[in-house]
Design a protein that fits this description.
Length: 419
């Protein structure tokens, strides 16, 4: 027997005896045999194998050894018996025995007997059955969980589609409502060019920015651009009221400060309670003439207009000190009068442009004069061109553009432009 075979026998889970056929005495017992019989391996060696079993099974053991030793078949012979586990044979356990002969040319004929404790085997079988049942139950549970997961995934997909449909509907409604707050087409004052653009920060919400250009008589035109506080339906309601109030006020008294004062009275009266609303706005009139156009304007807390001269000189129209419209009962508004010459452009914008977050330092675009520098680089321009350039600039801000932006520009064309 090789060392490897001996190690395998010693560590086998079943009991193994090697029994001398002539004397029925044990020549070898492995560790499992000692455990099953409750005897040491040394005590087992030399013991008659029949002494390990209850008296009524001694003939069975004798016959088993005889049959196994005389069998010409390679398959083992089996029997069941009760093994004593106490010296007085008062305590016994059921075992199953398999025996086959081992013939060697030099040694005595022996029979190898393997013992299986039926209780332990039943426990092992029960454990195997339980393990199988548990595995099947786990598989059933996994399949049920998979079914639930697939159902949940299906429900989630339906919910996602529903949410997407609702979001699309909201976007359509917001876009539709926004269009009602802005003029579909701008009519330019006589002999002038005009351009405008609206850039929403979010397609899901109605913004508060607005603008308009309209004739007051056959010589003078009115215009305004502003930004209502807040967003959504509430801001849209204030925007609509503001547009119509400015138009109506200009019919009775076109003086820019008077128009803003009229609007302030309406807003402050209607929105000074639990949900106060106000706006920044610039209102003005344009009167074209043979040598250019006169622009009279007033500002209520709005960023200053940008003037880009025909000679590329860029400056801001000074309307410093104008206060928010609708916030105070008697606010102060700042006014200015500007004459535009051929080739001059005046551009108006809302603060979403100047307050856009830019650069690695996350500063506001106009903190260091960014807008003036941008306009100076563009040099002499036209109303459509400066609006296009500013629109491209807005697109370059990406996520840094956090508010809506409205743009409005007027231009007195150069005399040679019509040539």
């Amino acid at each position: 027997m090789s060392a490897t075979a001996a190690e395998l026998l010693d560590s086998a889970p079943c009991g193994v005896f090697s029994v001398d056929v002539a004397t029925a005495r044990i020549l070898y017992a492995n560790a499992a045999a000692a455990r099953i019989t409750a005897r040491s391996r040394d005590a087992l060696v030399g013991t008659s194998v029949t002494d390990l079993f209850t008296i009524e099974f001694e003939p069975v053991l004798t016959a088993l050894i005889d049959v196994a030793s005389n069998s010409r078949a390679d398959s083992p012979i089996g029997a069941s018996a009760k093994l004593t586990v106490a010296p007085d044979r008062s305590d016994a356990i059921a075992v199953s025995i398999l025996a086959n002969a081992l013939r060697t040319p030099t040694g005595p004929m022996t029979v190898t007997m393997t013992l299986h404790n039926e209780t332990e085997r039943n426990v092992r079988e029960r454990d195997l059955i339980d393990a199988r049942d548990n595995a099947e139950a786990a598989q059933d549970s996994a399949e049920a969980a998979l079914d639930r997961s697939q159902d949940a995934l299906g429900a989630s997909e339906e919910a996602r589609k529903q949410a997407e449909a609702e979001r699309t509907q909201v976007q359509i409604l917001a876009s539709t409502l926004q269009r009602t707050l802005l003029p579909p087409i701008l009519s330019a004052p006589t002999g002038m060019n005009v351009a405008a653009h609206y850039h929403p920060a979010s397609i899901d919400e109605v913004g508060g920015d607005f603008y308009d250009v309209f004739p007051l008589d056959n010589r003078t035109w009115g215009f305004f651009l502003g930004d209502v506080s807040g967003k959504g339906a509430g801001a849209a309601a204030v925007t609509s009221l503001t547009r119509y109030t400015l138009r109506a006020a200009a019919v009775f008294d076109r003086d820019p400060i008077s128009v803003l004062a009229n609007l302030n009275t309406v807003l402050h009266h209607d929105f000074h309670g639990d949900d106060p609303r106000f706006c920044t706005v610039v209102f003005g009139t344009i009167t074209p003439g043979p040598d250019g156009a006169v622009v009279d304007l007033a500002s209520g807390g709005h960023p200053p207009a940008l003037r880009i001269g025909h000679d590329a000189v860029v400056d801001f129209v000074d309307t410093t000190g104008g206060q928010l419209v609708g916030a105070l009962a008697e606010p102060h508004f700042a006014s200015a009068s500007v004459t535009l010459r051929p080739g001059d452009v005046m551009a108006f914008y809302t603060d979403g442009l100047t307050e856009a977050i830019v650069g690695p330092g996350r500063t506001r675009f106009d903190d260091d004069g960014g807008l003036e520098s941008f306009a100076t680089e563009k040099g002499p321009t036209t109303a459509p061109k400066i609006v296009d350039d500013l629109t491209s600039l807005l697109a370059s801000f990406g996520d840094g553009l956090q508010d809506d932006v409205a743009l409005l520009a007027f231009e007195v064309p150069r005399v040679d432009a019509d040539a």
